[in-house]
Design goal:
Blueprint (H helix, E strand, L loop, with lengths): L1 H7 L6 H20 L4 H10 L14
Protein name: Perakine reductase-like
InterPro entries: Aldo-Keto_reductase, NAD(P)_OxRdtase_dom_sf
Keywords: NADP, Oxidoreductase
Length: about 60
């Protein structure tokens, strides 16, 4: 439950910022559905496609 409380105090999760992020999230979510994966899986695939010098940190998309 600590994560939920911490997220509530992040500017990106408050008020109009949350609404703006929802607008950006919906197309990404639809793209993930189209490719049969989750949004975090799509984000990780995009990240890995950026080059050989990118090292994802497991658990960062939770």
């Amino acid at each position: 439950m600590g994560i939920v409380l911490e997220q509530a105090y992040q500017p990106r999760f408050i008020g109009e910022n949350l609404e703006k992020n929802k607008v950006l999230y919906n197309p990404v979510s639809n793209l993930a559905i189209k490719h049969g994966c989750t949004v975090p899986q799509l984000a990780l695939a995009w990240l890995l496609h950026q080059g050989d010098d990118i090292i994802p940190i497991p658990g960062m998309f939770e």
